[in-house]
């Protein structure tokens, strides 16, 4: 008999499977030139459905190698696997960490400072009490939220060399808004080093485009219409050799007493951000930056988020406001 918690996880995984399979079909339609279809390999890993597509069939074995690397990275960045490096750091409160983990933590701290704390990687326990993946998620009691808020503060992370210390033993680091982007960057490095040519890395909707299509033209990427299935895009964009990452309130949410509660949580109030945004998509050369920026820009809201993205070189954003209108940052002339 499947235990209830495991069954819920199974259902979530099935959801990701079918949703991302549809996304893959969309990419194949938009990315292939006549007669050219990629070799595609997929695996449930990193708490999502990872898909690697390579157009050069002589390099097809690299896709499986990328998936193996995803398993290795899961043993670094997973917050829930007791064998992972991050889990052990949270449990011990202080330890020497790998260069990979150190790099992603430093990125989180940098964006904590940049956002004045609206993005905070020490909020791991806050998302836990919402339990979005459960069968019947509920708004936590206010007293429970308030207790956790006392221990959310990225400034309580101390770094000396490769040693990371949580000065507050009740804090817990969560790198879910950064790690997949970092992994996508490393997978791209691996494919480029091995002359893979045109390829698509898709880590649960965190997309990295390696090069351009085999005929030299841009890839076409569809963006999901909020709260609709992935077959209904709200827009599309052309890109090559860039990453595309979206943060939206429709990714994980529940409704209680007629009110929607989503997974992008405010570390100051302990409640989901309410700023009139449905989603933010970021396009740029580094997937790690796109990954964290999609969340940071969302937390800042439309005006401040737009100011931030327009101040950055090589990164662009499209905002979807709650009236379902699209708003583009500077440099988005190729958006269709």
Written description of the protein model:
This protein has a domain of 87 residues: T-fold. With 336 residues, the chain is of the alpha+beta class. The termini are far apart. The strands form 4 sheets. Strands 1-2-6-7-10-13-14-15 form an 8-stranded antiparallel beta sheet, sandwiched between helices. Strands 3-5-4 form a 3-stranded antiparallel beta sheet, covered by helices on one side. It is 37% helix and 24% strand. It is globular and about 60 Å long. The N terminus is likely disordered. It contains 8 helices and 15 strands. The longest helix has 28 residues.
CATH level-four homologous superfamily name of the domain at 80-166 = ApbE-like superfamily
First-last Cα distance: 49 Å
Write down the Rg: 19 Å
Major pleated sheet: 8 strands, antiparallel
**CATH level 1 class label of the domain at 80-166:** Mainly Alpha
Mean pLDDT: 90
Number of helices: 8
């Amino acid at each position: 008999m499947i235990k209830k918690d495991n069954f819920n996880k199974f259902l979530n995984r099935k959801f990701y499977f079918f949703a991302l399979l549809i996304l893959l079909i969309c990419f194949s339609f938009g990315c292939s030139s006549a007669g050219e279809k990629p070799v595609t390999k997929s695996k449930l890993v990193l708490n999502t459905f990872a898909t690697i597509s390579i157009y050069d069939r002589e390099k097809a074995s690299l896709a499986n190698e990328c998936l193996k690397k995803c398993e290795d990275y899961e043993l670094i960045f997973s917050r829930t696997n007791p064998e992972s490096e991050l889990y052990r750091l949270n449990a011990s409160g202080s330890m020497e960490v790998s260069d990979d983990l150190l790099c992603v933590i430093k990125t989180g701290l940098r964006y904590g400072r940049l956002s004045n704390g609206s993005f905070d990687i020490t909020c791991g326990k806050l998302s836990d009490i919402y339990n979005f993946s459960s069968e019947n998620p509920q708004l936590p009691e206010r007293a429970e939220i308030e207790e956790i808020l006392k221990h959310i503060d990225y400034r309580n992370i101390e770094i000396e060399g490769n040693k990371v210390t949580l000065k507050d033993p009740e804090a817990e680091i969560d790198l879910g808004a950064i790690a997949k982007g970092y992994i996508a960057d490393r997978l791209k490095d691996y494919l480029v080093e091995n002359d893979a040519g045109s390829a698509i890395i898709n880590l649960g909707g965190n997309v990295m485009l390696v090069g351009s299509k085999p005929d030299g033209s841009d890839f076409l990427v569809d963006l999901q219409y909020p709260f609709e299935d992935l077959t209904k895009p709200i827009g599309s964009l052309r890109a090559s050799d860039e990453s595309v990452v979206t943060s939206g309130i429709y990714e994980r949410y529940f409704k209680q007493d007629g009110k929607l509660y989503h997974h992008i949580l405010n570390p100051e109030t302990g409640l989901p951000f309410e700023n009139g945004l449905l989603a933010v998509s970021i396009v740029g050369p580094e997937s790690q930056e796109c990954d964290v920026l999609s969340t940071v820009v969302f937390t800042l809201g439309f005006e401040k988020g737009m100011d931030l993205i327009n101040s950055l070189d090589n990164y662009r954003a499209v905002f979807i406001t709650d009236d379902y209108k699209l708003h583009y940052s500077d440099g988005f002339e190729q958006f269709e």
